[in-house]
Amino acid sequence: MPNIKVSSPALEISGLTKRFGEKLAVNSVDLVVPSGSFFGLVGPNGAGKTTTLSMATGLLRPDAGTVSVHGLDVWTNLVESKRHIGVLSDGVRLFDRLTGLQLVTYAGLLSGMERSVVAERAADLLDLFDLEAASGTLVVDYSAGMTKKIALACALIHAPQVLVLDEPFESVDPVSGANIRNILHGFVESGGTVIVSSHAMDLVQRMCDHVAVIADGRVLASGTTDDVRGDSSLEDRFVELVGGRRHGKGPEWLRIS
Ligand SMILES: Nc1ncnc2c1ncn2[C@@H]1O[C@H](COP(=O)(O)OP(=O)(O)OP(=O)(O)O)[C@@H](O)[C@H]1O
């Protein structure tokens, strides 16, 4: 069975490309995510973040390019590589007719763990995400933030080395968000790698030690957060790189007086 090398980059993407009809969503993207880093992926709406992360985690087959996780080629070792990656996808439907506890248990059993280990970890995760009281509630009846947290619990249950989280803080309340950040920082401190996509520039600047800016399916800048932002805030640097700010105040009919 192929093995991972924890010394090699957590994620290495080379020439990754995806076209949807006429739209070139991801255009020959190269990225290196160092092992043990907290890596932010930022870009405007439609930049190609979700498409890139879906290809990087074995959910969407690339048209061209390669992806490896700790040295293991993802697309030629799909089953093995998924053991090392925890994924929170944006927009992928959950089996929401299960209760929270059933869903996390299902995710654990699917990854081949013993039932007793799954039960123990599921209880820990529900406690960690403050979802104990809702463990018997159907996920379809969860709020958006609760759904995000239960999906995150599903991504963690098999104790992966690399976490790939598409918009993990969207819809999550500030207290839960701070708790999730603590959990992720703890994960990184223990040697794991976290990759998050986010539109919250302040948060990415504070939280991530590395960042990549993508727009129109291409990487515009990548490196340590301090190198990418230079003397500016990450938000100002982002706007400078990506452009597209409008200075008008909107159409006349929107003005009250
Ligand atoms: N399944 C699909 N079929 C057709 N076009 C798609 C599909 N998925 C994505 N696209 C297109 O590819 C481009 C990149 O989309 P993607 O979802 O990767 O962007 P994103 O950076 O995650 O955006 P956002 O920040 O708004 O979530 C967009 O133009 C989008 O319309």
UniProtKB/TrEMBL annotation:
Subcellular location: Cell membrane
Matches recorded under SUPFAM superfamilies: P-loop containing nucleoside triphosphate hydrolases (SSF52540)
Coiled-coil region(s): none
Domain ABC transporter: residue ranges: 11-241
Keyword match Nucleotide-binding: yes
Matches recorded under InterPro entries: AAA+_ATPase, ABC_transporter-like_ATP-bd, ABC_transporter_ATP-binding, P-loop_NTPase
Cellular component annotations (GO), alphabetically ordered: plasma membrane
A GO molecular-function descriptor: ATP hydrolysis activity
Keyword Nucleotide-binding: yes
Membrane topology of this protein: Peripheral membrane protein
SMART domains reported for this sequence: AAA
Keyword entries, A-Z: Antibiotic resistance, ATP-binding, Nucleotide-binding, Transport
Gene Ontology biological process terms in this record: response to antibiotic
UniProt cross-references to Pfam families, sorted A to Z: ABC_tran (PF00005)
The protein's name in its UniProt record: ABC-2 type transport system ATP-binding protein
